[in-house]
Amino acid sequence: KAMGSESRQPMASQPPAVLIIGSGISGIAAAQKLYAHGFRNLKVLEAKGRTGGRIWSQSYGKGFVELGAQWIHGPSPGNPIYQLALKYDLLDPEAMTMENQKVKVDGHLPLFRISYSSSGKIVSRELVANITELYSSWLEQSQSVSQKDCDPKASVGGFLQQKIASKEKDWDSANKDMKLALFKGLLDLECCISGTHSMNYVALCLYGEYTMLPGLDCTFPGGFESIVNQLKSSLPNDTILLNKTVKTVHWNGTFQGSDSQMYPVQVQCEDGETFEADHVIVTVSLGFLKEKASSFLSPALPPNKAQAIQNVGFGTNNKIILEFKEPFWDPDCKTIQLIWEGESPLLETKRNMKQDWVKKIPGFVVLERPERIGHMLCSFIAGDESEYMETLTDDEVLSSMTALLRQFTGNPELPAPIHMFRTKWHSEPYTHGSYSYIAVGASGDDIDILAQPLPNEGAKPLQVLFAGEATHRSFYSTTHGALLSGWREAERLIGRYQELDSLLNKSKL
Ligand SMILES: Cc1cc2nc3c(=O)[nH]c(=O)nc-3n(C[C@H](O)[C@H](O)[C@H](O)COP(=O)(O)OP(=O)(O)OC[C@H]3O[C@@H](n4cnc5c(N)ncnc54)[C@H](O)[C@@H]3O)c2cc1C
């Protein structure tokens, strides 16, 4: 008998077979919730040799270096990652205080602790503070643009450029160039936050759809992966199959399983192994779907879903993490800003990638817990320059970064870093970028369409379900959005079987 049909057996006598593709936080969260609700015929198929996906904590020294997600964004009661981290006691005491949870950041950029210019000078703190304040207020305005009066072709970059251009006229020539360079750096930083090449790609009308939670961002002393490991520990050991790359999800079919039962879905792996199932939850990244959607599902996705995959944006943000024998920054310094003189957000500059890719780096974050991991600076770089950086050798990146720091600190003798980590999220074939954003031309509905299961109705509904950060309308691009999307799809299945079980019980009365 085909499983998943209206007449299927209740859970207790015939557990539905559920496959989850991907062991990132969304896949693990879906598995954990389903297992907790009695789903015992459950497998997670993961292409890589590790779980966690874009949560990737590399053990180093006596601590961890985060190659993927780093901060709990908005650690407060509304953030499920934070709530779980509290439950499992995974945070430092200061991250658990009420004061921390109440801080309202509202997208305001923290002021960089020290700002160097490309001519090796320290830029006045007052100037940096003024420009950062102005920029943050415009950014806040861009988040509250009314959708009703908004031109659908407008971008956040365009909105900010207009604001800058309108102020530029009043600036005297003495520090006009420095102000423009400061704005350019802040826009480059915004590209890292949004995971895009240019803020001109990010839709203005929907910028406010992303919901920012209160709370001062915090990190996991035992690595972000400690939360994945906690959730994973509730599953039997043989639930997650690593190095199991899914090639095609065949749905709307009739496939015989090894138990001789018939199933509507068959998942075919790259190594030739097949798995039959009643339901598959696809949690692969939007980057992977953009690349592979046409062959990943058979029959192909309905046109509205294929279009939504194209419409929603997905870009690259990478980290370059440098370890120094001794810090050249002050003990209380948490961030270092780089300001490229001569750059302007109002000029479209043609880049010579080989020499100019570093110009996209807005600065550094000083990594916490140096007593465990050494003296580390982490820089971020987004967009085409970031993807170009991935093509360079480690030696090339390291020597460019050393030269960059020597130039900006004005110290040609600055010792070179002793170690470097850098990510290549665009070249990762099972991620193909970093995270999603709402691109110009997309609508919030596109995200909802991405999340819609297939088919939605009929005799065998919910064969293919979709989770992952890009399917969460207000928390896309984050770990909490990913987690909630996994729970959402698990609950969709749980609800379905509760309905069927109650129908069956009624018919027995
Ligand atoms: C550099 C960087 C910094 C970030 N910083 C933060 C941060 O500070 N805070 C925050 O909240 N978020 C941050 N994020 C975003 C966050 O990491 C992601 O939103 C979240 O981890 C995504 O989880 P997911 O389960 O949706 O996807 P993933 O973690 O990508 O999981 C999908 C899984 O599917 C697997 N897969 C793909 N294709 C196949 C296939 N064909 N067969 C089998 N398996 C497959 C992948 O290998 C992967 O393990 C950051 C991301 C990056 C890249």
UniProtKB/TrEMBL annotation:
Domain of life, source organism: Eukaryota
Molecular function terms from GO: polyamine oxidase activity; primary methylamine oxidase activity
Residues bound to substrate: 380
Cofactor: FAD
CC terms in the record's Gene Ontology section: cytoplasm
Binding site for FAD: 26, 46-47, 246
E.C. code: 1.4.3.-
Name this polypeptide is given: Amine oxidase
Biological-process GO terms, alphabetical: spermidine catabolic process
Species annotation: Pelobates cultripes (Western spadefoot toad)
